[in-house]
Amino acid sequence: MSLDTAKEQRGFESEVSQLLDLVINSLYSNREIFLRELVSNAADAADKLRFAALSDDSLYEGDSELGVEIDFNAELKTITVRDNGIGMSRDEVNSNLGTIAKSGTREFFGALSGDAKKDSQLIGQFGVGFYAAFIVAERVVVTSRKAGAGAEEGVRWESEGKGEYSVETVRRDKRGTEIVLHLKEDATEFANGYQLRELCKRYSDHISVPVKLPQTGDEEGYEVVNQATAMWRRSKNELSDDDYREFYKHVSHDFGDPLAWTHSKVEGKLEYTTLFYLPAQPGFDLWDRDAKQGIKLYVQRVFIMDDAEALLPRYLRFVRGVIDTNDLPLNVSREMVQQNKTLETIRAGSVKRILGELETLAKGENYEKFWSAFGRVLKEGVIEDSTNKERIAKLLRFSTTLADDPDANVGLTDYISRMKEGEDSIYYIVTDSFATACNSPHLEYFRSEGIEVLLMHDPVDEWLVSNLAEFDGKLLKSITHVDAVEKSDEGSAEDAQTDDKADDSDEDSVIARVKSALAGQVEDVCESKRLTTSPARLVSAGEQMSANLERLLQATGQDVPSSKRILELNVGHPLVQMVAGLEDGEQIGTWSNLLYDQSILAEGGKLEDPAGFVKRMNEAVVALARQGD
């Protein structure tokens, strides 16, 4: 087999160059995390080899004792981190070290502000991994060979982190990866056995493979400096909060602390251990439904996978942690996992455990922080998880008319506790923004009567309410529908329509004239019993799809024809009264269309003919001005 052995000079992707600059400058005050990131990557390489060797034992190449070694040389100002894990080929080195193949990259860089302190928090959410080496190193040399490849297929990567790197094929007898850090002058303090031991104890004690450093004193060889046991298998009584926090940073590659965690061991017909974390901040791949989940599956302490949807449902994709069981075969495939009854049971128990932790969190102050970060994702659970729909619904939070704040957190249980005697429905409105919801004319009657309304403005809310017809025995009702208000509240809207039609039989009434002018555009025109300050509003009839849902479906490319709706007029409004006094048929048509267009705009809709609306508005204003003269 011919190999490309030539040394080539290549440029980093622009995103890598930008990230390197941020890492070097923004993380200067937290420099020691470079060791945590490199040792964590080395441990992952060992996990990957252990899994691959289940189907091909020859990959061990006679060496199945996996681990990480750390060397240092104070005179040469170097630190070396090496592992005997899965290793990398030349193509993988180029891919892994020269690019950022990570979803959310554009959003990440768009969120950067130039403030080093704030940006360092964002970097922690995005994760830097290998690039943390350049916090302390002026030059980094990586030598690697893929397990199972020939010694002549080794590869060396080298860079000063300034926009370029070189890569060449070299001979390497041992599989795995070795990273040599040539330290900056102000980072030579790290080339010290005592300090490296302290950092390993702090950051790597929970890693399940041994981390070794040279023996102290005159003794030769290496000694293990971490516990080298699966942290999640240890008793909770042995672990401190700091232990849990440090393991979270290992499993999530987040720089910050988690909001909460739950650690449990289940015994009985099935035996398994779970350790789940609720992050404080979302990762930048949160909205990528194809991104790997943050749960690692271990079987008999052997890492199996971290990207199977069977581990947790997608609406819990923000959770990080570990599932470990002895009740699955070691050679379980991804396809088998998706259909395995044992894992179905573990998954169901894991979901209940996480929801229980969220219920506990919901009783404290940190839930507001969680909801701000992950509320939109959790809402998907009402749609996806019918088994736990009620539990999830209790965890939902919304803005309401009692707190005109887009970040308000009102639960459905709180809403019900404030309902007036005789009320049987939870009222809501769904729009595309908080401002549109808050200023909607549909709210006027409910505000005047002191009836609370949920203000929903997330894209997922339309699907949420279509899957949550009731809560705790109370129906959820959209106030944009004509039959929103119960008969007990001044008679039903349907009764009001009947009365209106009787009153509007006069062909000269404003209702009849506007209805004639808008023939073909609306289903009906009637007098409103709900508007107090707005001249008009559009409502949907019966089971008709809401206008907001129509717009959402159309935006996704679905062929959803727009349905005709009912225009309600506030006959006491000066604008409607002015229309009632018009004699010119053309002017009546102009103002009728203006009322209709205004109603569409007020609910966040888009006009089919914006230019026509502007023209009619200008002509109407000019006509009024001339009348005033």
Describe the structure.
The chain is of the alpha+beta class. The chain folds into four domains: 221 residues, 2-Layer Sandwich (Heat Shock Protein 90), CATH 3.30.565; 142 residues, Ribosomal Protein S5, domain 2 (2-Layer Sandwich); 82 residues, Rossmann fold, CATH 3.40.50; 136 residues, Up-down Bundle (Four Helix Bundle (Hemerythrin (Met), subunit A)), CATH 1.20.120. Helix content is 37%, strand content 18%. The protein is built from 22 helices and 22 strands. Strands 1-6-5-4-7-3-2-8-9 form a nine-stranded mixed β-sheet, covered by helices on one side. The chain has a five-stranded mixed β-sheet with strand order 10-11-14-12-13, sandwiched between helices. A five-stranded mixed β-sheet has the order 15-17-16-19-18. Strand 10 and strand 11 form a beta hairpin. Helix 1 crosses helix 5, helix 2 packs across helix 6 and helix 18 packs across helix 21. The longest helix is centred in the middle third of the chain and has 21 residues. About 4% of the residues have low confidence.
